[in-house]
Every structure is written in C-alpha cells, then in structure tokens.
Amino acid sequence: MIDLLTRFEARDEEAAARFAERLAEVAVEVLSEPGHVSYAAYRTEEEPRTLFVLERWQTRTDADRHIALSAEGPANQQALALLVGPPHTVSLVPTTPEGTTR
Question: Which parts of the chain have pLDDT scores under 50?
Fold first, then answer.
C-alpha cells in the first residue's frame, strides 16, 4: 500500500472554496481508477487557504498513474490555477505497528 499526503495552498479563501469543490469531484472520479483504496480531502481550521488530500493506493504504479492524471485535463488545469504554487506530495511511511489504530 502507498499512502500519499498532498498539500495545496490556494491564492485566497474564495479560491480555496473553489478548489475544494474540485477535490470533491476528484473524490468521486478516483473510485474507478485502478488500485484506488481511499481518498479524503481536508482543510485546516487554522489556515483556511491550506488544503490536504490523504490517499491510499494499492501500488506505487497506481499512485503514479493517478498523479499523472491529476495534472491533465482542462478541469484540473483550471483548479491548479487557483493555487499559489504547485502541490507538494509526500509518501507516508508508518511509524507505528499495524493494528494499533482504529
């Protein structure tokens, strides 16, 4: 399994709201992508312009395919234009034993 955490910084709160709408659409779209396990979008209370996506994929290949698709298409390009810079994605590695969280 591959867990990814992506940080997005919107230009302003209006742009953040519009970007969040696009993330909600993507959440539905990824359901049909190969290797999809989970996808959830978040906004921070402290910084309303900052959004995160936490996602899980079966393999690195599945995750890489999704990342490549995320940069394509007019809807995604319009959404990325709402940001102050490119998204920043990191791969997460568990530091606690499997089964210690619910």
Answer: none
